Structure formats: structure tokens, C-alpha cells
Amino acid sequence: MVTSTGEVYVALISDPLLQSIDVYTLTGDEWVLIHQNVANGPALSVDMEFDSADNLYVTYLDQNQSNKLTTKKLVGNEWEFIGQPGFSSVANDFEFSFLEDDVPFVVYSDLVNSRKCTSKKYENTVGVEELISNKFHPVYPNPVEDLVHFEGENFESVTILNSEGKFILNHKVKANVLNEIDVSTLEKGEYYLRFSGSKNKSARIVKL
């Protein structure tokens, strides 16, 4: 893939045993590794795209999510989930791109639906029913004024959403240790925490 300024990048599964996704850029006549193990786990295939502002996205068949599709965006030097990991049904061939207003969308062969072609676009909201249906993960204190604490388990990130399921912020999680998030700048009210990784859980907090 080529950016608007002519820089060349490629995302590929460079280790056939680990099936990890690595990103390279072309510097002179050499390919230089710039991001390693983007998926934080095994992937079957990957597609990479830039939006109109040259933000880098990867979508991949995520083996941690039973071969469903997951999308990540490079923010600074960190890869953040876009939407829920494993947002599709079990997929096969797929293609990732953007609508005219830079809304990500994907078209894939749906193995659950007789390999019929299915398309999905990213929406900056999550159904509250979906959050409630997830297994709840303990957080404390709750209600909270400033710092909320939780055990990282094997999560990769946590997303905070408001009571209507709208995205507020994303936070990278340190696995298997005690984590904390500063929520002091949030307005008073009810929020949901959605934990993403090989296990998907949620929590509900009240900001004082």
C-alpha cells in the first residue's frame, strides 16, 4: 500500500508457525520491520488500508476470535481496536476498504450463511443489549470519582462507552496485573467498560 506522500507499506503474516502479523516499510531498496505481532496472536490472513488522512488500518481473520474478523488502527505507536474484536460471523475471503467519508467497511464470505457475501460498516456505537449480555468483569470502586481498577486477565484493551453505547475512549490493558483508568474527566453518569481479548467481558460503572 502507498500513502498520499509516496511511502510504501505492507502487512503480512511473516512467521508461518506463529501466524503473527508484521508491518514493513520500504526504505531505499530494503524492507524495514516497523511493527511486529500487530494482532497479538495468530491470524489466518490480513488486509491493510490507509484512509484519506493516511491513518493505517489492518483487518484480519482472528484465530483468538474463532476466525472472525478484527480491525485495528495505528494511533501514534499503538494499535487500537476499531469496534469489537471478532465483529463478523466466521469468515473466509474478505476485503477491507473505506466509504467516501472514511467509514471503514468490510465485505466477506460468510461461512455461517452458506458462504454468501456479507458486508458490514463500522458504527461508533455498540448495542447496550450486547454489553449487558457479556459476562461481567469486576471493577472497583464503583461508583467512582477518578480511578477505576480492574485485573487485566488476558485482555488487550478496554473501551469506555456511554449509556447509549457511544465510544468515549480506548485504553490499552496490561495482561494479568492490576490496571487502572483515570475517568476523572468524564461527566457524571452511567458508563460501560468493554474488555477485549481472547475473552470478551463488560462492566457497568457510575461516575460521580
Give the SSE map:
Blueprint: E1 9-15, E2 20-27, E3 30-35, E4 43-50, E5 56-62, E6 68-75, E7 78-81, E8 91-98, E9 104-110, E10 116-121, H1 128-133, E11 135-136, E12 147-151, E13 155-162, E14 167-172, E15 178-182, E16 189-197, E17 201-207
Note down, in words, how this protein is organized.
With 208 residues, the protein is mostly beta strands. The protein has two domains: 9-121; 128-207, Immunoglobulin-like (Sandwich). Helices cover 3% and strands 53% of the residues. It has one helix and 17 strands. The chain has one helix at residues 128-133, and strands at 9-15, 20-27, 30-35, 43-50, 56-62, 68-75, 78-81, 91-98, 104-110, 116-121, 135-136, 147-151, 155-162, 167-172, 178-182, 189-197, 201-207. The strands form five sheets. Strands 11-17-16-13-14 form a five-stranded mixed beta sheet. A hairpin with a 4-residue loop joins β13 and β14 (167-172). The N and C termini lie far apart (46 Å). The mean pLDDT is 88.
